[in-house]
Write a structure and sequence with these properties.
Distance between the termini of chain B: 40 Å
CATH topology of the largest domain in chain B: Rossmann fold
Number of strands of chain B: 13
Largest sheet of chain B: 6 strands, mixed
Order of helices and strands of chain A: HHHHHHHHHHHHHHHHHHHHHHHH
CATH architecture of the largest domain in chain B: 3-Layer(aba) Sandwich
Largest interface: A-B, 37 and 44 residues
Structural class of chain A: mainly alpha
Shape of chain B: elongated
Helix content of chain A: over 70%
CATH class of the largest domain in chain B: Alpha Beta
Oligomer: heterodimer
Distance between the termini of chain A: 38 Å
Strand content of chain B: 25-35%
Radius of gyration of chain A: 24 Å
Strand content of chain A: under 5%
Number of strands of chain A: 0
Structural class of chain B: alpha/beta
Number of domains of chain B: 2
Largest sheet of chain A: none
Number of helices of chain B: 10
């Protein structure tokens, strides 16, 4: 039996199915670079401006968002692109690759479509191969176009190729990682969650290693996020770090194929065990049902957010060291160790908020899956009112997201407090995260509103979220007009500790969130249930 | 007379430009088992979802147990139990947990009846729902519904995933429910099942009721098939009013006759010297095909659809 029979057909099929999705990813990422490069050249035209920017990139905040910091000594356009853009593109390609591979492997199996295909003349490895091949293709196309953009802006061709090549190879690596995760879990959601967790841990390795030492240290080298930047492109180009991708990709591929060959179609590596013959005393109402459906994902998300927050919090210890090394530069930028730490933690709190919002929206969207699967029909045919059903689901999301946000802030504060031996940070950071609670709840409210009133438009929530991410991360480099920045959700409220807490917008956003949720519940009460 | 368990008149429902229900009528009297017949896409499930308050009707009236299915949904649902045609369960709950949960959401579960039903349907309640086949998922919903003390059972093609043994268990359960005085709406396209179980039948087509009543009433309105062997040539019968599809083969003759013309046809037949005579009332299948025969014929391109 040829295990790859039919792969060619499937590759064409995947390309056909995803042509729009792939085109949007490609256009957004290439477009982002094409817009940023001229902006960087223009904004930092003077050497003094560039040196000031280099100092920012050398801070922990700059390292998280940037990289190991090659070329900061003489910060020119090439080095700026390498430092300012690589991480973002790597993260974006990681997300794209994980979603793509999971969608075309485990999600297909879970839905039963894979069974239909596999009953045809199709080799058992064809689907995974098609998923990995198309992902590699898109990564290669994106990498190639990124290279062309840089060359088109007058940057050195070899270094530009290292940039594009590194980004593409990292994307292929993350796709391979997702293929392995897709073998472990029976569910596409589980496979995606596991992949993103792995991606997050690898990102963390890079950050910890790079903060410990300019140019990266031992932990950095464990991360595919690091290798793309370890080519020292636009500074002192070397190619060999890219060679690290090949054996890792090969090992991950081999592992994925070998795991896939050992299991049945549709099965995970762990088979389902028998459970209780009846429901326990806790499983009595719809709130308990919603909570029960989400308990694993709540626990995993909360633990992941808290752990990342804790470990990021400990990074502030490096700030004192940096401040000590370069007192003149710090003074020139009007920074000292305290406000630098505040700025760093403030940015990290924003990341906790972004993660919590992503969880909260996904959590509310579970009701949509309940509805389209027909489980809501079964539940609502019992003596359960619409508002009670939807309201309990929203309540579960609100409670879990609040817990996650507060725990995240607390964990980060504890991390910072431990390394600085200053317990005051615990309260400062916990308060900073609590100050953003209305933003999280606003997303819950808006998702509920759209689900109740216009379920087809619920993607708008993600659009606003994505807009918020881009503005929050790039707004400061790109010199966007103020109103564009203000339109992002993460700029709505004052951000302690760098800004003063303001109760009026805090309460106003909270009120809007509540009103949106109420309107959503009312809409859900009035509309037809969307059938299976 | 108590108010009907289900009383639907002129029900209308559109999805965009598609008319799913177009003046549908349906009545189920208390204690009756009512068959609800129609091919795929005729509007059976849509009607049921309107009755459950999951969809809102565009026009017409629908009354359920004397209440408004949309406005009084929660209160009415305490008094009914529902089995969907395609049962979706929570993959990480066991069958037993799902049964208890559904029971608790409705009111209560009778533990004795629950155990008895699990036994009869041979369902293992400790398995996770994601490992169940379609038939087993259906059994979960059936056990949950039948173990309740609901006065109305709404069953939407409940046996489409069951094997013949389980179908007969199901038949017994519905008869018991009926004997206890419960009302049942049984949507189906398995005609033998409806013929076996139902007191009344409603046949719908493209969202509209085309026939309803007891099976006997419906048979009266239609034709019987007569097969006979006669001494003399029966070709003369062809001219009689109400006689259709006559075919003569030597001494044996087969024809359909309208029920109200039966008397005349038999008189004519006896004059030909009858040696044997068999008369069959129309089966439900024949009734059904009469309404859908033209569709079948059109689909087959040619030939007779109705048997």
């Amino acid at each position: 039996m040829n295990t790859l029979t039919g792969t060619g057909h499937l590759i064409r099929f995947v390309l056909r199915r995803d042509r729009l999705r792939m085109a949007v990813w490609t256009a957004s990422l290439v477009g982002l670079l094409a817009m940023t490069v001229p902006t960087l050249a223009e904004m930092f035209a003077e050497p003094a401006q560039r040196m000031a920017r280099a100092a920012v990139m050398a801070t922990p905040t700059g390292i998280v968002f940037g990289g190991p910091g090659y070329g900061l000594e003489e910060y020119r356009l090439g080095a700026m692109v390498a430092n300012e853009m690589t991480q973002t593109l790597l993260v974006a390609l990681a997300v794209m690759s994980v979603l793509h591979v999971v969608r075309h492997t485990r999600a297909e199996e879970e839905s039963g479509r894979a069974e239909l295909l596999r009953a045809n003349v199709l080799g058992p490895s064809a689907q995974m191969t098609a998923a990995l091949a198309t992902n590699a293709l898109v990564c290669a196309v994106i990498g190639g176009l990124l290279t062309l953009v840089l060359v088109g802006n007058g940057l050195a061709a070899a270094d530009s190729a290292a940039f594009g090549g590194g980004v593409a190879l990292a994307g292929i690596t993350f796709g391979a990682l997702a293929a392995v995760c897709a073998q472990v879990s029976e569910h596409a959601r589980g496979a995606g969650g596991l992949s993103f967790l792995a991606v997050g841990v690898l990102f963390m390795f890079r950050v910890v290693g790079d903060i410990a030492e300019r140019g990266g240290s031992a932990p950095s080298w464990f991360s595919p996020f690091a290798w793309a930047q370890q080519t020292r492109m636009f500074d002192d180009l070397r190619w060999w770090p890219l060679a690290l991708y090949a054996p890792v990709i090969a090992v991950l591929f081999a592992l994925a194929y070998s795991l896939a060959g050992r299991r049945d179609l549709g099965a995970g590596l762990v088979s389902a065990r028998p459970g209780p013959a009846g429901a326990g005393p806790l499983l009595t109402g719809v709130f308990a049902l919603h909570l029960r459906q989400q308990r694993v994902s709540i626990a995993v998300w909360t633990a992941a957010v808290a752990l990342f927050a804790l470990s990021f919090g400990t990074l502030v210890s490096e700030i004192d060291v940096m401040a000590g090394q370069n007192p003149e530069l710090m003074a020139r930028m009007g920074l000292d160790a305290t406000n630098m730490t505040e700025g760093f933690l403030g940015m990290l709190v924003l990341y906790v908020v972004m993660a919590t919002v992503a969880f909260a929206v996904l959590s509310v969207l579970r009701t949509r899956a309940e509805e389209s699967s027909g489980r809501a029909e079964l539940t609502l045919a019992a003596a359960v009112g619409r508002i009670r059903w939807m309201g309990s689901a929203v309540l579960v999301s609100v409670l879990a997201a609040t817990l996650m946000l507060l725990l995240g802030g607390l964990a980060m504060g504890v991390g910072a407090g431990l390394v600085t031996e200053d317990a005051g940070w615990i309260r400062t950071v916990a308060e900073a995260s609590a100050a953003q609670l209305p933003v999280v709840l606003l997303f819950v409210g808006l998702t509920t509103l759209l689900l109740g009133v216009a379920p087809r438009l619920v993607g708008l929530v993600w659009a606003w979220y994505g807009y918020g991410l881009v503005v929050a991360v790039f707004g400061l480099i790109m010199d966007l007009p103020e109103w564009l920045l203000d339109a992002g959700p993460f700029q709505l409220l004052a951000q302690p500790p760098t800004e003063e807490f303001d109760a009026v917008p805090f309460l106003a956003v909270l009120a809007v969130a509540g009103a949106a949720a109420a309107a959503g519940l009312g809409g859900f009460r009035r509309r037809d249930l969307v059938g299976a | 007379m108590p108010s009907p368990a289900i009383d639907v008149r002129g029900l209308q429902k559109s999805f965009g430009s598609v008319r799913a229900l177009d003046g549908l009528d349906l009545t189920v009297q208390p204690g009756q088992v009512a068959g609800f017949l129609g091919p795929n896409g005729a509007g059976k499930s849509t009607t049921i979802r309107v009755l459950l308050g999951l969809l809102r009707a565009d026009g017409g009236t629908a009354r359920l147990l004397g209440g408004d299915p949309w406005r009084d949904a929660v209160d009415l649902h305490r008094r009914l139990a529902y089995v969907p045609g395609d049962v979706a369960l929570w993959p990480n709950l066991t069958g037993g947990q799902a049964i208890d949960l559904l029971g608790r959401l409705r009111g209560s579960v009778d533990p004795v009846r629950r155990r008895d039903l699990l036994d009869r349907f041979e369902l293992d309640p400790t398995k996770k729902a994601r490992t169940y086949s379609k038939g087993n998922r259906q059994k979960v919903a059936l056990v949950a519904a039948l173990a309740s003390d609901a006065e109305l059972l709404i069953l939407d093609e409940p046996t489409s995933g069951l094997d013949p043994l389980m179908e007969s268990v199901f038949t017994d359960c519905v008869r018991e429910a009926s004997a206890q005085g419960r009302s049942v709406l049984l949507s189906s396209h398995i005609l033998a099942e409806v013929e076996k179980l139902c007191d009344t039948v409603t046949i719908i087509r493209r969202g509209r009721t085309v026939e309803s009543g007891t099976l006997d009433e419906m048979r009266h309105l239609t034709r019987c098939t007569v097969r006979a062997t006669t001494d003399r040539d029966a070709g003369v019968l062809a001219g009689l009013p109400g006689v259709h599809d006559l075919s003569v083969d030597g001494g044996s003759v087969t024809f359909d006759v309208d029920n109200d013309r039966m008397d005349q046809a038999l008189r004519a037949l006896t004059e030909l010297g009858v040696r044997s005579l068999v008369s069959n009332p129309p089966s439900l299948e024949e009734l059904f095909l009469r309404h859908y025969g033209d569709e079948l014929a059109a689909r087959n391109g040619a030939g007779r659809g109705a048997a």
